[in-house]
Amino acid sequence: MDIQASYAAGAYARARSATSPEEGGSPGLMTRSLQDFTKVLQQGEQTALAAMTGQADPHALVQALSATEQAVETVVVVRDRVVEAYQELLRMPV
């Protein structure tokens, strides 16, 4: 079996385009969820920094910490479910 570099490069390019988001298309649910998660963490961090310098009231800090905690707990639950599903697939007979 003779594998040429051009065939390998072409196959790689086709596989890469299948996994990358389409240009001009809307982001998927998982991408939006991760962006929202990142935004919540950044807002919590900014609020915590503002509270340390006296620029934010303690009530805003508690709200930001609560939102951050809820976001982290949600991500942990999703991660656990994904791992559980993967383990279930591994247990399936072939």
Automatic annotation (TrEMBL):
UniProt feature, compositional bias: Low complexity: 1-18
GO CC terms: bacterial-type flagellum basal body
Keyword Thylakoid listed: no
Keywords: Bacterial flagellum, Cell projection, Cilium, Flagellum
GO molecular function, one term: cytoskeletal motor activity
UniProt subcellular location: Bacterial flagellum basal body
Single Gene Ontology BP annotation: bacterial-type flagellum-dependent cell motility
Region spans: Disordered: 1-31
Family under the similarity heading: Belongs to the FliE family.
Protein name (database record): Flagellar hook-basal body complex protein FliE
Organism this protein belongs to: Falsigemmobacter faecalis
